[in-house]
């Protein structure tokens, strides 16, 4: 037995689905300025890194706090916010979690606890609002 009503239902819903997906594409945030290298000592880069490391330390299961060892590259693109793409080498410090701000943490060198990780952080920022979001993070042991 055929069910013509089913076919017409499909025909009715298809255009709606298509429309929804094109709307989604339209809502994608426009890139107003493409990724361009900027100085790694830029103040916003530093703030973004500080934020990204805080998130990293919150989420990592390591007993020790990781610190920035070397900022390799920083790039900026502008969308509805500032997006910083930062390549950084981070390293395990001698400070156990949770981090006490009064501690002087140094990177573990030449010990069994020596551990370095290369990370690429994409941090979205509205620095004038103090808003930072880690939009993407890729890390691998270095
Ligand atoms: C980590 O980053 C450094 C500097 O960019 C690079 O020389 C090294 O090959 C990287 N290590 C890994 C495992 O990707």
From TrEMBL:
Domain Cystatin stretches? 30-140
**What domain of life is recorded for the organism?**
Eukaryota
Organism of origin = Galeopterus variegatus (Malayan flying lemur)
Q: Does the keyword tRNA processing apply?
A: no
| Stored Gene3D superfamilies | 3.10.450.10
Q: Does the keyword Lipoprotein apply?
A: no
Identify the taxonomic lineage of the organism of origin. Eukaryota, Metazoa, Chordata, Craniata, Vertebrata
**Keywords on record:** Signal
Q: What name is this protein filed under?
A: Cystatin-8
Query: Where does the UniProt annotation place the signal sequence?
Result: 1-20
Q: Pfam family example for this protein?
A: Cystatin
């Amino acid at each position: 037995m055929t069910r013509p009503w089913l076919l017409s239902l499909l025909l009715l819903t298809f255009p709606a689905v298509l429309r929804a997906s094109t709307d989604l594409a339209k809502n994608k945030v426009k890139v107003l300025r493409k990724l361009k290298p900027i100085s790694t000592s830029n103040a916003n880069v530093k703030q973004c890194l500080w934020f990204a490391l805080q998130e990293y330390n919150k989420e990592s299961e390591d007993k020790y706090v990781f610190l920035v060892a070397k900022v390799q590259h920083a790039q900026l693109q502008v969308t509805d916010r500032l997006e910083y793409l930062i390549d950084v080498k981070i390293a395990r410090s001698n400070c156990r979690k949770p981090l006490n701000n009064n501690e002087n943490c140094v990177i573990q060198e030449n010990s069994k606890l020596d551990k370095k990780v290369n990370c690429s952080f994409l941090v979205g920022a509205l620095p004038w609002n103090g808003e930072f979001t880690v939009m993407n993070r890729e890390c691998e042991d270095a």
